[in-house]
Design a protein that fits this description.
Helix 1 packs parallel to helix 4. This protein has two domains: 150 residues, Rossmann fold; 102 residues, Bacterial fluorinating enzyme like (Elongation Factor Tu (Ef-tu), domain 3). The relative contact order is 0.13. The protein is an alpha+beta fold and 270 residues long. The radius of gyration is 20 Å and the shape is elongated. The strands form two sheets. Strands 8, 9, 10, 11, 12, 13, 14, 15 and 16 form a nine-stranded mixed beta sheet that branches. A seven-stranded mixed beta sheet has the order 2-1-3-5-4-6-7, sandwiched between helices.
Length: 270
């Protein structure tokens, strides 16, 4: 597969430190023609399942041959392996901590390489910033056409990531909030197809903290301003939102505290 020249960045670095700019500087020093696209740098620190979901949602919209660089690495400096992957459509560079597992399952992996060829790294490797010293230069070299097979040994056991799926018990479907977007909408792990199959002809009663919502709407403006609602977002995941407001504020929780909050949906077919 020929690289497209595009490199996407997904990290938990935030925007107040120089880390993202440093990674871009490393990439551009090796490939000045690289087209760098920021996916997000607001992954909750170390939250692998959140990063995995965003990667899986995003990569399908990029051209074939895109290099996806993912630096969510709570085990930096430890025993986890640095890896590069080639699927039927894309390249990936990341720590082997499971963050790539969902997308590798979905895209059809052709090879995964444990990165050991130090000539493709920066000359000095720190114990705390492999994003700069290993992952960024590897992504840049791949974007120039270097075969990942030259960068280390092929492995057959990339780390799997256990993703918590919604579960059904009796007349109740249990899910959870997996992220909060910039608008304060609470994105759950409940997919539209799964919920519709559960409900069949019944109406839903959606509960999240002190919120109770008894209908799934089509648009944010289908309720009065300031009122909460449930709807399916652009990724077909159930969202809890507030028209012209933030659902995250109603719960009285910080952004990171909302992650993992329980969502229940009960059938109301009376």
């Amino acid at each position: 597969m020929k690289p497209s020249g595009i490199i996407t960045l997904t990290t938990d670095f935030g925007l107040s430190d120089p880390y993202v700019a440093i990674i871009k500087g490393v990439i551009l020093s090796i490939n000045p023609q690289a087209k760098i696209v920021d996916v997000t740098h607001r992954i909750s620190p170390g939250l692998l399942f959140q990063a995995a979901g965003i990667i899986e949602e995003t990569v399908k919209y990029f051209p074939e041959g895109t290099v996806n660089l993912v630096v969510v690495d709570p085990g930096v400096g430890g025993q986890r392996r640095p890896i590069a992957c080639e699927t039927e459509k894309s390249f990936f560079v990341a720590p082997d901590n499971g963050v790539l597992w969902p997308v590798l399952e979905g895209q059809g992996t052709s090879k995964v390489v444990h990165l050991t060829a130090t000539k493709y790294f920066l000359p000095h490797i720190s114990d705390t910033f492999h994003g700069r010293d290993i992952f960024a230069p590897i992504a840049a070299h791949i974007s120039l056409g270097t075969d990942i097979s030259k960068m280390g040994s092929i492995i057959a056991d990339p780390m799997k990531l256990k993703i918590l799926k919604p579960r059904i018990k009796g007349r109740v479907l249990y899910g959870e909030v997996i992220r909060v977007d910039n608008f304060g909408n609470l994105i759950t792990n409940i997919h539209q197809a799964e919920l519709e199959a559960f409900l069949q002809a019944a109406s839903p009663i959606v509960r999240l903290g002190k919120l109770t919502i008894q209908e799934i709407r089509n648009t944010y403006t289908s309720v009065p301003e300031g009122e909460p609602l449930a709807l399916y977002g652009s990724s077909h995941l159930l969202e809890i939102a507030v028209n012209m407001g933030k659902a995250s504020d109603i719960l009285g929780l910080r952004h990171d505290e909302v992650i993992g909050a329980s969502v229940t949906i009960t059938k109301d077919d009376e």
